[in-house]
TrEMBL record, chain A:
This is MFS transporter. The keyword Membrane applies. Residues 467-489 have a biased composition (Low complexity). Residues 26-469 form the Major facilitator superfamily (MFS) profile domain. InterPro entries: MFS, MFS_dom, MFS_trans_sf, Sugar_transporter_CS. Keywords: Membrane, Transmembrane, Transmembrane helix. The chain crosses the membrane at residues 20-37, 43-66, 159-179, 185-205, 293-314, 326-348, 355-374, 380-403, 415-440. Residues 466-489 are annotated as: Disordered. The keyword Nucleotide-binding does not apply. Its main location: membrane. It is a multi-pass membrane protein. It holds the Pfam family MFS_1. It is found in: Cell membrane. It comes from Microbispora triticiradicis.
From TrEMBL, chain B:
This is TolB-like translocation protein. It comes from Microbispora triticiradicis. Gene3D superfamilies: TolB, C-terminal domain (2.120.10.30). It holds the Pfam family PD40. InterPro entries: 6-blade_b-propeller_TolB-like (IPR011042), WD40 (IPR011659).
Length: 489, 340
């Protein structure tokens, strides 16, 4: 009997033999929103340099100077987004709509922004929208998905997201192909696409997916299963699951979450009604699992060299032909896209935190290749990009999935925002330090130091995240154990 | 909302937004189409022979931006009659420079998945000798006085979300050996007398003194320097702060450049200056508008530079010694060079 599958609709669908259906409709809807939004965003990103140089006749140099400021603001906005989303018993959808909406409003503004400072301000506003929506969106994904399938759900979401990012530039250059110098047309189409993303979000992502969605579809599946199997056993199982979901408010699903709640103080963690004090962050950090995972994300983030440095290093240390340079980020994205879902599925099996750490080993491998094979052949470049993409596939959605296994529903968006912000700020600090190290010692030694840091941090993180490391046990081991346990039954 | 109702709303949104998108694209396509037709009141252009060879009258070559079939092509006019009909050899260039029978043309290659760019070395009759792929959007190019060396700078953009990381890539080509120094950032940098390396070093706007030496903008840490480059030694030595897009005078004694002047608006921060390399004294040029271009020396005393205009850009001129007043030299034109 499929106990785990009986918890909610998606899993129940899967054992009718459709693997993709194992991802809840809400996740697919959010994936579609991200895909559409990324098409819109990357259309702009792809033509922006051309627009500035050819369309407006501007020199965009020095444009990136404020990048650091934007990053810092973006991180704080993400915390605010998480905070707002969890407040008042769950306003995830409302905050997500605000975030996506804000970014969508920025696209038509590009039609009237003609100077670098104004364009910079519009992009900063766009980024604010992105910061605002990230945590509530990931919370919605987690709330719609049973714990043991969240790795896959986040993987599907990230794959759809990356698909949009890859399609955006293609669409933008199709428009420019039809209408030479039609940057206004690109921005108009981008605005329309962004608006469509918001429409899909409003229409197809339920406001309270956790229970409402599960109940409705679970009920539907009960019927389906009765029809399919005709056994009373399934019916019982599903009814029980429904009751469980209703009563436990999701927290009871994961034993470890209970442990965390107990550790943090039951009233504190469950207080979904009066949950709008900043003290929630401390409450989150008092949960040992969350604290350890956040610490590891920050520690590893401190040794994660930013993408632009990676491409710069590849350009300098390998003989990458000039015309290939713009393709380097596409290589990472393609590997991320292809590996995101498999990585999510593997994460559900072997444990998210284990895969998160394995992902950093892939990154270490990429660093090693860059260090070991300067001026190396092109296959080495491809290998670095595949490892880099594998790193993202094994860490990006997987970390979110791991966080959701530790944080109770009432604080889900806050927990996601906290860990995400910690990681982003750590990576930003790494960028600054890496730039300084490059200035002081040159690119090779700087990367060697980062690699050494990663080589030390990864085992430290492995030790910190070992199942036996804390009183609360290992949640990801818990969630990974459950499917296999059920498979055995 | 029931599912059929939601689907209806979605369909309506798709139709509305799709319709708006199609309208925008069709509108822009029609506008692009109309730009391929010549218009009354614009500088006229027609096909003809263009040469870089010596022994002809003094003439000015530039990229014409007037609408019509010759838009973006390199055209030639007599230097003393810049308003004359423009003669085009049918070579399209985004940026162009020439000296002693060698032309450097940075052009776009339209592909289905976006434009790619290449640098083309042209012979005296503007025929392609050799082409090199470029890593980004062309911004500057120069040929050395002898015609042997060529240099170019392109913008390379990052790929991050709403990517705002722009960097430059500057290359130097020896057209005799066809050896290409693909990235000048691999040169050893000596800044303020000390060896210097940093990830954020950017170089742009080469101007050649001779075949082995040049001047260039070096930027790092949000500041810019005038740097002297040595091709054989592969070194860059900074000599002065706050200098961008240097342009060496024909006698090699002065550098025209754009300078970031404090107190100017952030979207128009530059003024055109001339630096005397012997006295290191700066003289402001009479142009009071912000100039975002690498100026050219039209003769030993006169500068030419582009400013935004109705067709994208116009070429203006002003005396290099700070006297006089700016004057519009060419309408709908960019990247001028005088050939004798």
């Amino acid at each position: 009997m499929y106990l785990a599958d009986s918890r909610g609709a998606p899993a129940a669908v899967e054992h009718r033999g459709r693997r993709w259906a194992a991802v809840p409709g809400t996740v697919l809807a959010l994936g579609a929103v991200s895909l559409i939004t990324d098409v819109s965003a990357e259309m702009v990103t792809a033509v922006l340099p051309l627009y500035l140089v050819s369309g407006l006749g501007l020199s965009p140099l020095g444009f990136g100077v404020l990048d650091g400021v934007y990053n810092g603001v973006g991180a704080l906005v993400r915390l605010a987004g998480g905070h707002l989303a969890d407040g008042g018993g769950g306003r995830h959808k409302a905050v997500a709509v605000a975030g996506y909406g804000l970014s969508a409003l920025c696209k038509p503004l590009l039609l009237v922004a003609h100077t670098l400072p104004v364009i910079g301000a519009v992009l900063a506003l766009d980024r604010t929208g992105k910061g605002l929506r990230t945590a509530p969106r990931d919370a919605l994904i987690s709330l719609a998905t049973p714990p043991e399938r969240r790795g896959r759900a986040f993987g599907v979401h990230r794959a759809m997201d990356t698909t949009g990012a890859l399609c955006g530039p293609v669409l933008a250059f199709l428009v420019l192909g039809v209408a030479a110098e039609g940057y206004d047309a690109v921005f108009t189409v981008s605005s329309c696409v962004a608006a469509l993303g918001v429409v899909v979000l409003v229409l197809f992502v339920p406001g309270r997916p956790a229970r409402a969605d599960a109940n409705v579809s679970a009920a539907a599946d009960v019927n389906a299963n009765i029809n399919a199997a005709g056994t009373a056993v399934h019916t019982t199982a599903h009814t029980a699951a429904r009751a469980d979901a209703n009563v436990s408010a999701g927290a009871g699903i994961d034993a470890d979450v209970n442990a965390n709640i107990n550790a943090a103080g039951t009233a504190d963690a469950r207080g979904s009604a009066a949950s709008s004090t900043p003290l929630r962050v401390t409450a989150l950090l008092r949960m040992p699992g969350v604290r350890r995972l956040a610490a590891c994300a920050v520690l590893l983030g401190l040794t994660t060299v930013s993408d632009s440095f990676v491409y710069l290093l590849l350009q300098r240390r390998f003989e990458v032909p000039a015309q290939w340079f713009p393709l380097l980020p596409l290589g990472t994205a393609a590997a991320f896209l292809l590996l995101a879902v498999p990585a999510g599925v593997v994460a559900d099996r072997i444990g998210r935190r284990r895969l998160f750490l394995l992902g950093h080993l892939a990154l270490l491998g990429a660093y090693g290749l860059v260090l070991a094979a300067p001026g190396g052949p092109l296959p080495a470049v491809v290998a670095v990009l595949v490892l880099h993409g594998a790193f993202y596939a094994a860490t990006d959605g997987v970390l979110a999935a791991a966080v959701t296994g530790l944080v109770p529903e009432a604080m889900r968006a806050r927990g996601l925002a906290l860990v995400g912000t910690g990681q982003a700020l750590a990576r930003f600090a790494c960028s600054i330090a890496f730039g300084a190290a490059w200035t002081a010692w040159g690119d090779g030694p700087a990367l060697a130091v980062a690699a050494a840091g990663l080589a030390i941090s990864t085992p430290a993180a492995i030790a910190a995240l070992r199942p036996s490391a804390g009183p609360s046990g290992d949640p990801s081991a818990g969630s990974s154990a459950s499917p296999s346990r059920q498979r055995a039954t | 909302m029931p599912v059929p109702r939601r689907l209806t709303v979605l369909l309506a949104a798709v139709l509305l937004l799709g319709g708006l998108s199609v309208w925008a694209v069709v509108h822009a396509a029609a506008r692009a189409e109309s730009r391929s037709l010549p218009r009354a009141g614009e500088p006229a252009a027609g096909p003809g022979a263009v040469t870089l060879a010596a022994g002809h009258e003094r003439r000015m070559l530039f990229r014409t931006m007037a609408w019509g079939p010759h838009r973006d092509e390199v055209v030639s006019v007599p230097a003393d009659d810049p308003g004359a009909p423009r003669v085009s050899a049918g070579v399209r260039c985004l940026r162009f420079h020439a000296s002693s029978g060698t032309g450097a043309c940075l052009q776009a290659v339209h592909g289905s998945l976006g434009d790619t760019y290449r640098a083309v070395v042209l012979d005296a009759r503007l025929r392609e000798r050799r082409a090199f792929p470029l890593a980004g959007i062309p911004t500057r190019t120069r040929v050395s006085p002898s015609g042997r060396m060529a240099a170019w700078t392109v913008f390379v953009s990052g790929d991050s979300y709403a990517g705002t990381n722009f960097s430059t890539r500057t290359s130097i080509l020896d057209t005799r050996t066809w050896s290409l120094q693909d990235n000048l950032e691999t040169y050893r940098v000596v800044k303020d007398g000390r060896p210097y390396h940093a990830a954020d070093v950017n170089l742009w706007g080469v101007t050649f003194a001779d075949d082995g030496h040049f001047w260039v903008t070096l930027a790092t840490g949000g500041r810019t320097w005038l740097a002297r480059g040595d091709v054989a030694a592969r070194t860059l030595t900074t000599v002065r702060r706050n200098v961008e897009c240097p342009s060496l005078s024909p006698d090699g004694t002065r550098v025209a450049f754009k300078k970031r002047v404090p107190g100017l608006p952030e979207d128009a921060p530059w003024r055109l200056y001339v630096l005397d390399l012997r006295t290191m004294r700066e003289t402001p040029v009479a142009e009071r508008r912000s100039v975002d271009d690498q100026a050219v020396w039209l003769d030993a005393r006169t500068l030419g530079y582009a400013l935004p205009g109705d067709f994208g850009a116009d070429v203006w001129t002003a005396p290099a010694d700070g006297s006089g007043a700016p004057r519009r030299l060419l309408t709908a034109a960019l990247a001028p060079v005088v050939v004798e």
